[in-house]
RNA sequence: GGUGGAGUGGCCGAGUGGCUAGGCAGCGGCCUGCAAAGCCGUAUACACGGGUUCGAUUCCCGUCUCCACCUCCA
């Protein structure tokens, strides 16, 4: 068993060979909590959730660190001029993210460090870079500290760019920079910024630059050399390039494999605030069951751009219903519930091969569909053993993908007493309908079905009699 | 201008030098009083032009188009 992942730096598939055998350290760039989570944030979180699940199922002890950037220009700007302090804004949005992740079934990371709780680690790292001659305080007395890109010949190695070809960095006022491409490690406090948005440092009061936090936190929790660093494709430059440069310049081995997930597009265009085409997580999750959203976001390989459309969401819902319906039928034929924890030994070899191959979830889903079809055929043929075997495999695969229906308990609907009451009422109607049908009075039978349908109760006739369910929409 | 990536049947989306994933939608059939579900079968592809090859959607060259990053961004 060898799990392979695509590494941005070498532009090749790399075998995963953990620094510490049997353990995997995975760092993921989490969100800047400045505004509501959208579908792109969900996809990113989901990619690493599935990666983590597969690594875990494969026997690794995974430490997943996903940071929260809770101090940043945008957060300060968002709170400026409002009654809400910047830290309240950040925390409010952070909770929105947590809620969206939770609804989607994204497991919490092993730890979720906040930037504001790791300021000293960043100061230590910056000091180390200054000592080593790779960073310098601005000469203009601003209190800024910059990374000296000219001092680091490897700069650009992650994204294969040469310093000369790059446009100038613009993440800070260039006055105090030796070179326009140098980037801020520390930002001196400006007079119009809140006093509580700054910390004391050897360079005066200020706050950390964006890139330094990930270097400080990843190495703090995973060690100076760790296995996998993940994030969205749009973070490759400058964020990850700078992260790599400053970490390597500090003497760290840092991440061995850099993975980047593709973005979500709407109408062939990147979704972004400025285009006004954002699909927010809360809206999405209100529009369709979380399980369907999860399926949709997993239906493209993680490095591919994923095209979002409302029609695609409906499609995902139907697809998921088909899978769930099979499991439900199999259960009534004696299939036992899927254990909450499964391993790679519980899934078909072809599924495992697809997952090992740079997490090819679409190919893995094809195996799921194949087994569902086989299972349905077995049910139709009365082959219980084959049906149960298929259900076991399907259940295990869904667990790995975080798509198992058991993990998505119906919220606010599955009240037992209410269900029983409804069942009694519906059963009475179905009894009348059965009599009508027996008497070949199909007008009456269809009227009853229509009445129930109008109330949101769907009727399906089976060889064993009619079954009812509550329509989702 | 630099860097990375993409153009696959109605839509989404894998993949491969010949045996052409999967889903949804469509069509035909089975089942059903009808429907739904399910099963079986089935049409529609690989941006364009060359080249290599017995054979290319898959390799090579060229062309076109599109996307992302180089500014905050999952």
Question: What does this entry look like structurally?
Answer:
The chain is α/β, with parallel strands linked by helices and 473 residues long. It folds into three domains: 258 residues, Rossmann fold, CATH 3.40.50.620; 139 residues, Orthogonal Bundle (Isoleucyl-tRNA Synthetase, Domain 1); 55 residues, no CATH class. The protein has 14 helices and 15 strands. The strands form five sheets. Strands 4-3-9-10 form a four-stranded parallel sheet, with helices on both faces. A four-stranded antiparallel sheet has the order 5-6-7-8. It has a three-stranded mixed sheet with strand order 12-11-13. Helix 2 crosses helix 3 and helix 5 packs across helix 6. The longest helix has 23 residues. The protein is elongated and about 95 Å long. 41% of the residues are buried. It binds one RNA strand of 74 nucleotides through helix 1, helix 6, strand 12, helix 9 and helix 11.
Per-chain topology:
Elements: E1 4-7, E2 12-15, E3 23-28, H1 39-57, E4 61-66, H2 73-79, H3 86-104, H4 119-131, E5 135-137, E6 145-147, E7 183-188, E8 206-208, H5 210-222, E9 225-232, H6 236-249, E10 254-261, E11 264-266, E12 269-270, H7 281-287, H8 290-298, E13 306-308, H9 310-332, H10 349-356, H11 361-381, H12 384-401, H13 416-438, H14 442-454, E14 457-462, E15 465-470
Parallel strand pairs: 3-4, 3-9, 9-10, 11-13
Antiparallel strand pairs: 1-2, 5-6, 6-7, 7-8, 11-12, 14-15
Helix pairs in contact: 2-3, 4-5, 5-6, 8-9, 9-11, 9-12, 10-11, 11-12, 13-14
The structure holds one RNA strand of 74 nucleotides.
């Amino acid at each position: 068993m060898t799990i392979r992942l695509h590494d941005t730096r070498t532009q090749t598939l790399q075998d995963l060979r953990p620094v510490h055998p049997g353990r995997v350290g995975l760092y993921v760039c989490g969100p800047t909590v400045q505004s509501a989570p959208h579908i792109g944030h969900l996809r990113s979180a989901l990619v690493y959730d599935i990666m983590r699940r597969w690594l875990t199922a494969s026997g690794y002890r995974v430490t997943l660190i996903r940071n929260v950037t809770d101090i940043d220009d945008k957060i300060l700007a968002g709170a400026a001029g409002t009654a809400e302090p910047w830290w309240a804004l950040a925390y409010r949005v952070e909770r929105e993210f947590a809620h969206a992740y939770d609804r989607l079934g994204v497991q919490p990371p092993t730890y979720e460090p906040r930037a504001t709780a790791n300021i000293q680690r960043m100061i230590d790292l910056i000091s180390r870079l200054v000592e080593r001659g790779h960073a310098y305080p601005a000469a203009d007395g601003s209190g800024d500290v910059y990374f000296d890109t000219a001092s680091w010949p490897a700069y650009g190695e992650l994204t294969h760019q040469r310093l000369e070809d790059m446009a100038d960095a613009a993440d800070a006022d260039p006055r105090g920079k030796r070179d326009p491409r140098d980037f801020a490690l520390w930002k001196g406090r400006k007079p119009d910024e809140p006093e509580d948005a700054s910390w004391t440092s050897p360079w005066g009061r200020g706050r950390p630059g964006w890139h330094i936090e990930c270097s400080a936190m990843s190495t703090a929790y995973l060690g100076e050399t760790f296995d996998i660093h993940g994030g969205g494709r749009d973070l490759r430059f400058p964020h990850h390039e700078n992260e790599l440069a400053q970490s390597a310049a500090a003497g760290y081995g840092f991440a061995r494999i850099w993975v980047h997930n593709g973005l979500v597009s709407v109408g062939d265009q990147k979704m972004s605030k400025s285009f006004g085409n954002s699909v927010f997580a809360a809206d999405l999750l209100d529009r369709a069951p979380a399980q369907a959203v999860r399926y949709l976001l997993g239906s493209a390989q993680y490095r591919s751009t994923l095209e979002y459309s409302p029609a695609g969401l409906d499609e995902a819902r139907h697809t998921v219903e088909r899978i769930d319906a099979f499991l439900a039928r199999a259960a009534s034929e004696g299939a036992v519930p899927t254990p909450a924890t499964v391993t790679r030994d519980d899934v078909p070899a072809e599924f495992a091969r697809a997952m090992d191959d740079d997490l090819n979830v679409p190919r893995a889903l094809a195996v799921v569909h194949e087994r569902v079809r086989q299972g349905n055929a077995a049910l139709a043929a009365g082959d219980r053993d084959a049906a149960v075997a298929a259900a076991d495999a399907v259940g295990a695969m869904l667990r790995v993908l975080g798509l198992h229906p058991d993990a998505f308990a119906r919220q606010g609907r599955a009240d037992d007493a209410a269900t029983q009451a409804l069942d009694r009422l519906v059963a009475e109607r179905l009894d009348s309908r059965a009599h009508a049908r027996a008497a070949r009075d199909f007008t009456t039978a269809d009227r009853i079905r229509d009445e129930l349908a109008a109330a949101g109760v769907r009727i399906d006739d089976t060889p064993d009699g009619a079954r009812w369910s509550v329509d989702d929409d």
